């Protein structure tokens, strides 16, 4: 059993230890939590390329003591040429290849926005220092992780012929073995160029021109004008009150609203015993109610009939909570939403907290790599529909639905908790598991992350939509869930299907506690 890490100076957590170390080093040098997160975001894009890249999207929650949290929506919209007619004869948007690279990549714009917004925090370190670890890892190479090896093998038939993929992520035409050194020298040069030219060069400079030329040559509809027109959005996070405090998450086009709804519905059930049938069943049934609302009503907010805040109002939540049967499972499944990503958190010595998530959607995204920049491009746009009249139909400038949702909580006793996970539909469920165990039932933070988890629906590495339970749950609880009507499948312990979670809590006296997921390659870096 891992123990919760504690320190006073600063703390960072990531699903890969090299990313956590990059953030921890910035904090030790006096950098802010936002600066640490930029360093972590760049590093994780290099060392965990199957999960994220700088050709993907990102979302931030930044919280300074005494101030309302700020959100950054660094989501890329569908490019100007994107239209259903482009995919005539395909039936659906192809999941891989150039035609899957149809939305802008927003995450680098989010890095810049975070640094700009947190200028009053006291910017201390130059961009060259923030990206130094990522540049070194890309140039020198990193040992290939178990999950990168496994996913490359699993998805090779889909990706090996996609422009740029084999040259970047295979070695001598073969899948790199676990522990084999993988170098990305072109990406190292690109990151180095950004330290000199500035992050905006990704959209309106030499890097932008190279990306546009390469992706267009490969057959993507993306153009230089699309890159030049992209801007991140500064937004107010959604929030909801619970019995123990206030929780925050991102508004649409993310599923942050569903994450908040699950906790608010569960809080209304009055459960007081952790790891009981009422705990696990209650959260699963709250998930179903939240997902029904999400699936029917949440996408690009410009196309939503109702504001997301209306689904977090007390009377609406009361009605949904009343639909939850304390003894029987609501029939399932419903349509599932896949996705791959990374969540990371950082808190600095002044108590400024960051919850951050970065993604390319599916593992390795579209698979398309710009040969002159080494940038892997996401395939988030494949979540759009092509059917006439569909509420999430592809259109130029429309933003895709995101499973991404970084979470943050301010508890009534003064603690601040930044937490999250990767894992598609599993993200809100794992957030609910970790938060309820720690904040509602008082489990130690690392125990709350390590404890067995469940998953309703599809996530990374899984196509089924039943209820999956790690085998460490008590046999009597598993049987009780089956008897209540849940379609239970027991899966291996510490499976990647349950996501890579993490959390940091800051206590009123400045003490920091952190937890990393033993299911990941991650760790907590603290001093």
Task: Please provide a written account of the structure.
The protein has 527 residues and is an alpha+beta fold. The protein has two domains: 5-234 and 341-383, no CATH class; 251-329 and 422-520, Gamma-glutamyltranspeptidase, large (L) subunit, C-terminal domain (Serum Albumin, Chain A, Domain 1), CATH 1.10.246.130. The chain has helices at residues 17-28, 33-47, 107-117, 127-130, 132-140, 146-159, 165-169, 185-197, 201-204, 206-218, 224-229, 256-267, 277-297, 314-322, 426-440, 445-450, 475-483; strands spanning 5-7, 11-14, 57-63, 70-74, 142-143, 181-182, 233-235, 238-242, 245-249, 340-347, 353-361, 407-411, 416-420, 454-456, 467-470, 488-491, 502-506, 512-516, 523-526. Strands 1-18-17-13-12-9-8 form a seven-stranded antiparallel β-sheet. Strands 7-4-3-11-10-2-19 form a seven-stranded antiparallel β-sheet. A three-stranded mixed β-sheet has the order 14-15-16. A hairpin with a 5-residue loop joins strand 17 and strand 18 (512-516). The mean pLDDT is 94.
């Amino acid at each position: 059993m891992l123990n919760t890490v504690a320190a006073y100076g600063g703390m960072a957590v990531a699903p890969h230890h090299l990313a956590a170390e990059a953030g921890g080093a910035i904090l030790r040098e006096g950098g802010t939590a936002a600066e640490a997160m930029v360093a972590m975001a760049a590093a994780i894009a290099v060392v965990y390329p199957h999960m994220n890249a700088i050709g993907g999207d990102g979302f931030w929650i930044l919280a300074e003591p005494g101030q309302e949290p700020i959100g950054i929506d660094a989501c890329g919209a569908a490019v100007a040429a994107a239209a259903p007619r482009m995919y005539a004869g395909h039936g659906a948007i192809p999941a891989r290849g150039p035609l899957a690279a149809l939305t802008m990549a927003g995450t680098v714009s989010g890095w810049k926005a975070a640094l700009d917004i947190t200028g009053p925090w006291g910017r201390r370190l130059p961009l060259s220092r923030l990206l130094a670890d990522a540049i070194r890892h890309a140039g020198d190479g990193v040992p290939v992780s178990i999950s990168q090896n496994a996913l490359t093998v699993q998805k090779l038939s889909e990706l090996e012929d996609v422009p740029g993929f084999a040259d970047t992520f295979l070695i001598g035409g073969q899948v790199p073995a676990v522990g084999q050194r993988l170098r990305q020298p072109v990406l190292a040069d690109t990151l180095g160029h950004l330290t000199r030219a500035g992050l905006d060069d990704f959209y309106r400079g030499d890097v932008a021109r190279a990306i546009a030329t390469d992706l267009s040559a490969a057959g993507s509809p993306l153009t230089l004008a699309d890159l030049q027109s992209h801007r991140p959005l500064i937004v107010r996070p959604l929030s909801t009150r619970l019995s123990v405090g206030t929780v925050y998450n991102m508004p649409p086009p993310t599923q942050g609203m569903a994450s908040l709804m699950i906790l608010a519905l569960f809080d209304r059930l009055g459960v007081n015993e952790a790891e009981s049938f009422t705990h696990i069943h209650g959260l699963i049934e709250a998930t179903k109610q939240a997902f029904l609302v999400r699936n029917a009503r949440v996408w690009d907010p410009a196309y939503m009939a109702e504001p997301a805040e209306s689904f977090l109002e007390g009377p609406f939540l009361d009605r949904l909570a009343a639909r939850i049967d304390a003894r029987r499972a609501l029939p399932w499944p419903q349509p599932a939403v896949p996705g791959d990503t990374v969540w990371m958190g950082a808190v600095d010595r002044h108590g400024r907290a960051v919850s951050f998530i970065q993604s390319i959607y599916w593992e390795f995204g579209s698979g398309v790599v710009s040969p002159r920049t080494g940038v892997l491009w996401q395939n988030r746009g494949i979540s759009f529909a092509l059917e006439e009249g569909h509420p999430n139909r592809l259109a130029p400038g429309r933003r895709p639905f995101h499973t991404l949702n970084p979470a943050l909580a301010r508890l009534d006793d003064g603690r601040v908790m930044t937490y999250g996970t990767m894992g598609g539909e599993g993200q809100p469920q794992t957030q609910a598991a970790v938060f309820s165990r720690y904040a509602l039932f008082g489990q130690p933070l690392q125990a709350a992350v390590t404890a067995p988890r469940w998953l309703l629906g599809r996530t990374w590495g899984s196509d089924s939509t039943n209820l999956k339970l790690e085998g460490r749950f008590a046999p009597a609880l598993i049987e009780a869930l089956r008897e209540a009507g849940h379609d239970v499948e027991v899966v291996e312990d510490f499976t990647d299907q349950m996501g890579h979670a993490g959390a940091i809590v800051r206590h009123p006296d400045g003490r920091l506690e952190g937890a990393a997921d033993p299911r990941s390659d991650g760790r907590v870096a603290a001093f």
